[in-house]
């Protein structure tokens, strides 16, 4: 968000699905992991993130992660590092700058915009397991159970998408003057 007079809320709701990368390794040692597919995990509870005003917000939650050894007689073992259950929790990261967003719609004072039914950004390093020196992809779609909502308290504001109009497939949303 690059303007005042706009607040944003976000709820990661029960049943919301996130797609997270899976690590594969022949040894299971830290630093030996490579991307080996994805796993989709559904949340078992809701997390309401705090409202925010001016600034840039990235919302994060947590998942239980395990290291699994897959073996069959006569075949070398393979290790997998994967999320297996929603853990919950909430943290908000504030990047220094908003992403470039040029697909805009005008929003009047008093308007509320809620995005559902679209795909969010696929973060190439969005799922990180520091102890194993492994980062991989993460993506959550915008749905009825995971929806950003913008409240416009000032007139002549814009809501913009980084990849398309906010009413379509915006990827990321930015409010600006």
Descriptive terms for the model:
mainly beta; seven-stranded antiparallel beta sheet; four-stranded antiparallel beta sheet
Characterise this structure.
25% of the residues are buried. The protein has 177 residues and is mostly beta strands. The chain contains no helices and 14 strands. The protein has one domain. Helices cover 0% and strands 60% of the residues. Strands 2, 3, 5, 6, 9, 10 and 11 form a seven-stranded antiparallel beta sheet that branches.
Proportion of residues in β-strands: over 45%
- Put simply, the count of helices is 0
Instruction: Describe the global form.
Output: elongated
The total strand number stands at 14
Number of domains: 1
The biggest beta sheet is recorded as: 7 strands, antiparallel
């Amino acid at each position: 968000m690059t303007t005042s007079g706009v607040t944003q809320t976000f709820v990661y709701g029960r049943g919301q699905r996130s797609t997270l990368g899976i690590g594969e390794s022949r040894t299971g040692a830290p630093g030996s992991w490579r991307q080996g597919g994805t796993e989709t995990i559904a949340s078992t509870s809701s997390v309401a993130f705090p409202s925010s005003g001016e600034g840039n917000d990235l919302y994060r939650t947590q998942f239980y992660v395990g290291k699994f050894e897959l073996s069959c007689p006569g075949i070398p073992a393979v290790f997998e590092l994967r999320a297996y259950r929603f853990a919950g929790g909430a943290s908000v990261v504030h990047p220094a700058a908003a992403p470039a967003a040029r697909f805009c719609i005008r929003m009047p004072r008093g308007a509320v915009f809620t995005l559902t039914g679209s795909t969010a950004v696929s973060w190439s390093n969005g799922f990180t397991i520091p102890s194993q020196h492994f980062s991989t992809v993460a993506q959550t779609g915008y749905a009825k159970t995971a929806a950003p909502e913008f409240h416009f308290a000032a007139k002549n504001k814009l809501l913009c998408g980084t990849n398309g109009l906010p009413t379509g497939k915006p990827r990321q949303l930015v409010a600006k003057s």
